[in-house]
Structure formats: C-alpha cells, structure tokens
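Problem 12. The chain below contains 371 residues. Write out its predicted structure in token notation.
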Amino acid sequence: MARSLLTVPLLTTTAVAALAWFTLGPAAALAFIALALLEIAMAADSSVPMAGIAGRLHSPARRLFLSLGIVAGVLAMRLLLPPAAVAVGDASDPASAVSEAVFAPGTFAAHLQDVRPALAAFGASFIWLVFAEYLFNTDRASRRSWLGGLEARLAAVARPRVWSLVTAGTGVVLTSVLVGSASSWEPVSVVPAVLGGVAGTVGYLGSKAVAKWALRSPAGTTDTSSIGTGRDAWRIHAYASTVVFERGLVVFMLFEILDGVYSLSGSGPLGSDGIGALEQAAVAGAAIAVGAVFLARLTSHLDQAAGLQRLRYLKAGAAYVLGVLSVLLWTSLLVPIPGTVVGWFGSVVIGLALATSLPWRAWVRRARVGA
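Solution.
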C-alpha cells in the first residue's frame, strides 16, 4: 500500500528532476530532489489532521477537498504566506514582497527576520489554541487517553474553551515577561511578543467564528447532515479553508519561522550558485506541489481506510505535535532552537503515536497460540 501511495509522487519527482537536470543543470536537480523528499516527509505528518476534517465532509465536497482543495490550499499557504507576512509587518505592497522573495532573497530574509518575533508569538498562541481543542476536549468527543490519567482529567474539565483561552493568555504573558526581563523591558522586544500573541488569539477566534458560521444549516441550526450537499456546498468549503489555513500556518511556523528557511528563495535548501532566482522559485514550487499531491493521496487513503479509527492514537499524536510546536515557538523568542529539534520532533511524536496504536498484544497472543 505504501508503494502505491508513493508511486505518483516519486514518478513525478523523478520526471521533474530529470527535466531540471537537462534544462537547469545537476545542482537544480539535486536541490529539487532534496526539497521534494522534505515536502513528502512533512506531508506524512499533516495527513492525519487532514483526514480528520475530510471525515466531516459530504460528497462531492469530500472528493473535491481530497484532490484539488488540499493541493491548491497547500500551494497557496506555502508560497504566499511568507511574503504576505513581510508585507503586513513592513506595511509594504504584497507584490513587492513576492518580487523581493524571488529576486532579492537576502533582503527578504532580513525583512522576514525583522518581523519574526511577532510572527512567532502569533503562531505560538494560535497553534496552542488549536492544540487546546484536543487537550481540553472542547467537542466532548469520546476517546481513550493516550498519556493516561492526567490527560483524561484535562479532557474532562468544565468550561474547556475558557481553559483554552486562559492557558494561551498565560503563555503570552509569561513569554512577554521573560522577553522583557532578558531585554530590560525594551519596547522593541516586548511589544512584538505581546501584540503577536494577542493577534494570534484574535485570529484563532476569527477562524473558529467562520467555521461555526459555515457549519450552520440555512435554517440557522447546527445540524450539519446536509452541509456539503446541494446549493449550500460552498459552506463546507469555507469550513475546510479554515483547516487548510491552520495546517498551512503550522508548516509556515515550523519551517520558515522556527527553522528560518524559506523554500521559495535562495535562503532555503535551493540556495546554490548557478541557479537563477526564477529557476529557484520554479524548482521550489514544483517540489511543494509534489508534497501537496502526496498529502492529498495519503489523506484520501486514511479517509477511505478509516485510519484514524483503526489507529486510535494517531489523532492524539498529531495534536501533541501542535502543542510542542507552540511551546518551541514561545521558547524561540528567548533562545535559539537547534535545527535537529525542529527537523525531527514531529516525526518522533507521530511515530510514537503510531507505535502505541498498533495491536502489539494481539500479535503476541497470536504468536504464542501459533507456537
């Protein structure tokens, strides 16, 4: 099954790498392969929460989301969110930010670094609130706790949404105090952390308001049985777009803000002498597209195979990836985060969730009976 899922992405990678080799040279081909494999690995982590949202959709909305919706959403978020962040932070023209990212990657990287504290604070509070949906079980879903009694008690607290906001606010305040203490309360350091944290909370609440509005039936009830079918199919796509935004923001924070690498420009894995700016952008875009196609295929497979139900802790692992990422973003405002931590923590958490989901005891019993 894994081979069939990888067939299209790997064949596409091979074909594009060969084309890049003959048209742009071996440096471009090798850079494309490295970035495409990185995007495929990132897609493996993102497929679990994407499968969760796919389960809420109805055909043909589900088919559209699992194919075109995911691919288009990933491309838009991965390629356009960093220039948009720089444009907002510098109050500049978005088109100029995109042009700068492609043709002046050094200047763009410096501008992205300037707005990094506010972006990291924004992402930390936003992503923590997404994680808190699982931690405090805001939808009151029936589930088995992955980490035992403490997780079970947190999932049963009264007023879970209040707890979510309180813990996020605590993270913003604590980080701002620590940043201020380290910088003798210089406004240049403290203000971005505070404003970014507040903006992240407001952004999360706005995203959830859109999702709640989109899921309401035309009659004004919360019955979602008919959403995604007929004339109101656009509502479920509005809801799905909020999830695509959440996942795109997570990837942006992980690889562009926390790791400091922007794939579209020469400051990232494609930075190489002999590859022009436009060629770098084209190769990076192609690599991101390969990852998006793999994400769509893997998400579709998980949805069809009911993977989240069969592997019961995968959803928990995906949630804890978000929790760790938010803590790392807050921590990055104080100290640098090692690249090895950035590159591997998500895979380790998802791997542990997968390993604990497998029916090891049943396999052992079967082996003993067979013996």
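Discussion. The CA atoms of residues 110 and 116 lie 10 Å apart. Students who got a different answer should revisit the alignment rule from Section 12.3.
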